[in-house]
Specification:
This protein has 344 residues and is α/β, with parallel strands linked by helices. Helices cover 22% and strands 25% of the residues. It contains eight helices and 18 strands.
């Protein structure tokens, strides 16, 4: 099957069509440049894969991009409201979004990059762009436990909704927001929930209205919790834990290993971008322009912070587009020549 070339070269191709990637494309268009977004999933794929009933920690105006107001009747918007908002933004700005295309490799250099993708049917496509922005986030790559049984089909690294787990023994691994939200939602919908966390208590970053809820459920024995503990083995019908009191084996039908996520460092390094191993694997880039050490390749969103994934969110990553667009304007904008018509 041959590779199909898409339209003519564009000024900017953004890898990742989440809120940060969208903001980059919007600001590029505002600067008079052409922009295309490519994503291996749907628009705002990470948000789509959040729990169905998730509520944001922040207020609506802090999620806004492109100076479009985010109207919500709630002080803190939910997942469905956010998805609707970003769809409307994409429509308003007529963003050219190539969904369900996975980037396989990037060739070329500053001024003429070739981005090779495959679609859902394995068909190969080639996109050409003068500049690139990598805004791939981190939610697609979970931190694996690397323990026996983690590859069983009953082990999940994402939590979506509680109904399929009613009446079952479910283990939730983790001590941050994702684990707390999942444990509470599962318990409230009839699952028998056990929580395991390597720390001595729930993490201090758990949202302030969730922390007392999960702590009270544990205190009341409604959710069984093992702190300062770790899962050592996952089998078809049970799990084994290492706890301060010794080894514990529990009956189990499903495991949610919600132990965090990380950026695709392999992909970033494959582009030639240098990672600062002494600084939490932060990619090398100019903080004023966000251009990496590879000329013409910019970084935006959470990947700028490397392994420190709790430093950059939609709320501050959405401003990266303006920094990048200012640099793009300076490097790509060429004034149209003035044609003088003389009268004979």
């Amino acid at each position: 099957m041959g590779e199909v070339a898409t339209s003519e070269i564009v000024d900017l191709l953004v890898i990742g069509a989440g809120p940060t990637g969208m903001a980059c494309a919007i600001e590029a268009q505002r600067a008079g440049l052409t922009a295309v977004l490519v994503d291996k999933g749907c628009l705002c794929n990470s948000l789509f894969n959040y729990p169905a009933n998730m509520t944001f920690f922040t207020t609506p105006e802090l999620l806004e991009i492109g100076d479009m107001p985010f109207s919500s009747p709630n002080q803190k918007p939910n997942r469905n409201e956010a998805l609707e908002y970003y769809r409307k933004v994409a429509e308003h700005y007529s963003l050219d979004i190539r969904q369900y295309q996975n980037v396989e490799r990037v060739e070329g250099a500053d001024g003429d990059f070739a981005v090779h993708t495959t679609d859902r049917f394995g068909r190969m496509l080639r996109h050409r762009a003068r500049k690139l922005v990598v805004a791939t986030g981190y939610y697609d790559l979970p931190n694996y436990l690397e323990i026996p049984g983690e590859d069983l089909s009953k082990v999940k690294h994402y939590y979506h909704e509680p109904h399929p787990f009613y009446g079952l023994d479910v283990l939730v691994i983790g001590g941050k927001n994702s684990a707390a939200i999942a444990a509470l939602d599962l318990w409230r919908h009839g699952a028998r929930v056990t929580l395991v966390h390597r720390g001595a208590e729930m993490h201090r970053h758990v949202k302030y209205w969730i922390l007392p809820d999960i702590n009270n459920r544990v205190k009341n024995g409604e959710i069984k919790a093992y702190f300062s503990s770790a899962v050592t083995n996952i089998a078809e019908d049970d799990v084994t834990l290492s706890t301060p009191e010794g080894t514990v084996t529990l009956p189990n039908q499903f495991v949610f290993a919600l132990t965090g996520y990380h950026p695709d460092f392999t992909f970033i390094e494959g582009l030639g971008v240098t990672l600062d191993d002494a600084n939490d694997r932060c990619p090398v880039c100019d903080p004023a322009t966000l251009e990496s050490n590879v000329p013409g390749i910019y970084l935006a969103g959470v990947i700028v912070a490397g392994e420190r994934t709790n430093e950059i969110f939609i709320e501050n990553g959405r401003f990266h587009g303006k920094l990048i667009a200012e640099d793009l304007r300076a490097k790509l904008y060429v004034a149209q020549p003035i044609t003088l018509i003389s009268k004979s």
